[in-house]
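Schema walk-through. Below, the input block comes first and the output block second. Nothing else is stored per chain. Lengths vary across the set, and this one has 350 residues.
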Amino acid sequence: MNYREVLQELEGVMQNARQYMMPKCRACRICNSQNCKMIPTERSGSAIRNYDKLQQIRLVYDTIYEGGDGSEIDSSVELFGHRFRAPIMSGAYGHVSSFNPSTHFSGDYDFTKALLDGVMAAGCFGWTPDTMGEGAYTEPLRCLREHGGVGIPAIKSWSPEIIREKIRMAEDAGVMAIGHDIDCVGLAYLSVNGKGKTYPKSAQQLREIFSITKKPFILKGIMSARGALKAVEAGATGIVISNHAGNTMDQSLSTIEVLEEIRNAVGDKLLLIIDGGFRHGEDVFKALALGADAVLIGRPYIVVAEGGEARGVELYTQKLVWELQNAMRMTGCRTLKDITRDKVVVTKEF
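--- output ---
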């Protein structure tokens, strides 16, 4: 299929998604968080800022370079011993019916299977969720095991005993790395003021908790250079620069605003993954140019999964990869290493 054919089929997926997503989500043509009911908070300033700040970055044309017909553009990346077509991954969502009551999926396993089947068919990979409720962690993890462990489970910031138990379960599933969702402490239903019990952890506590495994571990929810340096102290392999899609606190900085500061602070000590408002391959390019190693995309994957199951996920991922590759072609970047800071311009002050 060519790009136009993918867009045409994807349009049908989006139209189909509306019957399952409404009224919670309208499967908007531009998913910019404006008046979005998918955000479970009274205000959505942080989510809107994530998207808006990405729009203030533009790519720099450069189409005079040695490169033949352009077919040699290589967007592939090696992560955790596996090679992927692009540094793109789908986010983790658990209890799909809790944020989309009209879902047509029967449960977490079916939803996760559609995500992993689709994203892997396009040559990338995904994260799996952890939250309250029976099977919310184990069913997606079972799906991940069936995919050869190619993916990352995101364990919430429970008590150390529960985290260790879930680390062992992840190891048994053969996962390539383990994520730890440390910013979940701001989610109302998981905080000490809600039904769940998740807690902040010190760098020393994190080091002690994850000392039981040799698997690389990724701390998700870092939003400052200071926090990134604490992740280094904790022994993390990498971090996800994330404000939880703006769901945990209004009025935070956007993720793209803090990316360069974090990269400058940690150098090559951490793998940097970023999420928050990324919708297109050009957005992925922007993050790579500013210092990220990979991009995690969330909400759009829910929509395409509802609208087309694994096929919808595959189409959307294929679209992202092609957009990234075209951005590389138009800026003189034959490999990911060529995507440097001078390839983008911030048109307004952050």
